[in-house]
Amino acid sequence: MNACTQPGCSGQILDGYCDVCGTPQGASATASAATGSATPAGADGAVSERTASFRMDSTPFGSERLAASSGVTRRVRSGSTRTRAARLGAGLTAVPPAPPVDAASAVMTDPQVPENKRNCANCAAPVGRSQNDRPGRPEGFCGSCGTAYSFTPKLKSGDLVAGQYLVAGALAHGGLGWIYLARDRNVSDRWVVLKGLLNAGDKDALAAAIAEQRFLAQVEHPLIVEIYNFVTHDDAGYIVMEYVGGVSLKQVLKERMRANGGAYDPLPVDQALAYVVEILPAFQYLHDLGLVYCDFKPDNLIQVGDAVKLIDLGGVRHLDDRDSAIYGTVGYQAPEVPTTGPSIASDLYTIGRTLLVLCMEFRGYQSTYLQSLPDPATTPLFQRYPSLYWLIAKCCAPDPADRFASADELRSQALGVLREVVAARTEGTALTSAASVHFTSPAVSTAGIDWSQLPVLRPDPGDPQHTFVTSLPAGEPEERLAILDGAPEDTAEVWLARSQEEVRRGNGASARAAAGELLKDDPWDWRALWVIGLAHLRTGAPAEARAAFNAVYQQVPGELAPKLALAVACEAVGDGEVAEGLYRTCAQTDAAYAAPAAFGLARVRAARGDTAGAVAALDLVPPTSRGYGESRRLRAEVIMAGQGVGLPALDEALRSVDGVRMDVAERESFTARVLERALVLVHGGATGGPVGPYAADEHSLRAALEQRYRLLAREAPDEAERFALVDRANAVRPWTLT
Length: 738
Fold this sequence. Notes:
alpha+beta; Phosphorylase Kinase, domain 1; 6-stranded antiparallel sheet; 3-stranded antiparallel sheet; 23 helices
């Protein structure tokens, strides 16, 4: 036996091959830089060194370029700003960062509670108020129920709580008493917050209260203030929390009011939505743990830099807790809480109310509109942003079952509304596309969208029959319906599939009946209403379709598909004003909707004789859209069909199709139409600039038109048409004297 010739291989040649690396006898020596042994190319499906990209030349980059650089010895940039975008705003908008607040400067120099905020903790009666020019007593007994009250801080600077927390002073007064700033002497002197838990002489009651609240220490989420500890001091209990050195949204609103001369100055809608979108994962986290927050409001959301934190966990409780005290704020708390207790739905109610307070001066939210919303028909904010209204209306529905099912569901729709708001503000200049979890993208059509070109519902992967429904073979509706009749179980997806197949074959009654079976099981499944709307469109009942699609819009206000479908139905009914607004929203918001929505917007405007508006609508289609070429052709046709078309308009029409992919016959035919109109105008005495690349004089136009006719003759499908075009070319050719 001979030794293997491959470097680093200890094998022997046996029967013509190495018994270790498998190299044939006599093969040239090649070394693997990684292992020191050769590997057959493509062995065991692995990437061989002959096909791996590391064998290719690579353009020098970074430190490799230093040798060729002129004086560069260090990295110049710290990184792309695209990867360091602000967290707030979901990448859709910008929210000004809040500067950090120095902890020591936040301590109150004279900690007092204003008299107008002194109320009995037991019966809410006013206490500690001035009488006969005498200032109110900060401590005493309620004149209504006899309960003792005290608005004097129990801790002062220098107090050491639980042998660990050195008090710096009071920060604020809350529903459970004073909130203090302290340093944790056991953990690097970090700042912490002490919040009163219970102030009672009953030690057993105090111990029970602390035990009930210890679950808060298990809450760990980057958007939620961290609970460090529970301690007692002088028969009082305290929650020890993370210090969040920022500003609350209530403080932000107050500062905006101060800067606005005392008049309420709400946040821009996109910024308000950005705050809500950012904090909703914290609510989903709590709800997944079986906890409810109970008392959300602008006071309890802190912004630090470009991040936010949910603070004040004093009201957090278990979903199944029916004994603990319920904390809430008038104007934010859901109406059913006093009788049925807090729930996920009641948390979402507080979020909706908070969003509205951030967006507008919500006068009467603690009185006239305590359990309702202002009329959208008379509220400018809702008139400008209808989707925002439906988002808030669903959050704050009187029946908890009509609200969003989860914080995640609310966040999905809030993101969609945020995209709409930003797009309306920028008029679609930064048009992008965002995939929907509920719908596919619409088809592109210029002649008018019918039911078959609207977005399609995406199957729900959580449905037990999802695999069965999605594996149905393509075919005629009758064939697929026969298979669906053999479904192992009649689930929502099966009923939806049946209904959609009935729509395909034009049986509106059967389609509505199948969707109705789904609504019997789940009256809140808006997908059934979507298919019912399609069935009405399919069978020529646009008014009924409009009602169905409008209901879907109200349930998923962040989705564009219901808006597009509703616009189609409104256009068919003759409600052009509503259709125009919906088409414009879709066209400005999402690149996937830009073409079909812009075509609809152009149709509505052209129908009322607004040529300039129709052209502007078609200009909303971006060059990246698959409908861009069609939009340019349609743009030219709209200009040609306008009233009083002159030479400048003909020039614009011809230039509209520059660079658009068209076959020879189509392009030359359209150019000939434009030149024919231009020649008639010039004969009538019109003067002006060029028409496309052609001078606007009779000789130039005749020569160009003759050339168009002859090119069309070459493309003519039959002899008769070819001869006719040649005759037209001869007739229009410029006359000469030679």
